[in-house]
Design goal:
Layout lengths: L1 H82 L10 H5 L12 H9 L7 H39 E3 L5 E3 L2 H5 L2 H40 L2
Antiparallel strand pairs: 1-2
């Protein structure tokens, strides 16, 4: 009888252990599910924040592109005018001289991306999307920041030259001190052609960045819509 009781107790104990193990496994599974759900919620919020930043940046860079395109077109017209030996000064040239080395800036919003880095890049499960976001912020936006610095330096370098030949009026516009002297100045023309060529290069790169921003935003929205 004692042996029979011991056998029953042993089976009971084994059953209890199995139930405990099963309970632990279920609890771990639930905990993993909850943790995964929490991480996906965080991922979703971060992707939404990054996408909102990118959309704001798209609007901002488009404004910059429009303004810079106008400046490049105006400078090219002015270069043709200055190279024309028969050209004479006209009042409508004042607006062209006014913006001769003006530049627009663009600095991307990075709050969403900084949040991502603080949480860990691995929180984004889609590897291709993660790589695309990192490339946009760390490479393309990094180069864009360097480009903004170059624009500023170009302005600082060229402004003393242009100020020698141009008078700044109270409203901020500029008029030539001597139009014929400007036409005959190789220094003035060289600076003008140089900054115009550089602005044109900046525009080409900025358009590439705009394309990358639009592609990244579309990729993020596709990812969010699949949840």
């Amino acid at each position: 009888m004692e042996q029979n009781k011991t056998s029953k107790y042993f089976k009971y104990a084994i059953g209890e252990i199995v139930l405990v193990v099963i309970g632990i496994l279920i609890a771990l599974q639930i905990n993993n599910w909850n943790e995964n759900r929490r991480e996906r919620f965080i991922e979703q919020k971060i992707l939404q924040a990054i996408n909102n930043d990118i959309k704001t940046d798209i609007s901002a860079i488009k404004v910059m592109l429009d303004n810079e395109s106008d400046i490049v077109a105006s400078n090219r017209e002015l270069i043709s005018i200055l190279k024309d030996s028969s050209s004479v000064y006209k009042p409508e040239y004042q607006s062209k001289f006014a913006q001769i080395n003006r530049y627009d800036i663009f600095f991307p919003q990075k709050m969403g991306y900084e949040t991502l880095k603080s949480k860990g890049l691995e929180i984004i499960q889609n590897d291709s999307l993660k790589s695309q976001i990192v490339s946009l912020y760390d490479f393309q936006f990094g180069t864009t920041t360097e480009m903004m610095d170059l624009k500023k330096q170009m302005f600082l370098d060229s402004n003393p030259i242009f100020n020698t030949f141009l008078e700044t009026l109270d409203d901020g516009s500029r008029v030539p001190n001597n139009f014929n002297a400007i036409k005959n100045s190789a220094v003035f023309l060289n600076h003008l052609t140089h900054i115009t060529a550089e602005k044109s290069n900046f525009l080409k790169y900025s358009n590439l960045v705009l394309g990358a921003m639009e592609e990244t935003s579309a990729h993020i929205e596709k990812e969010l819509n699949e949840w």
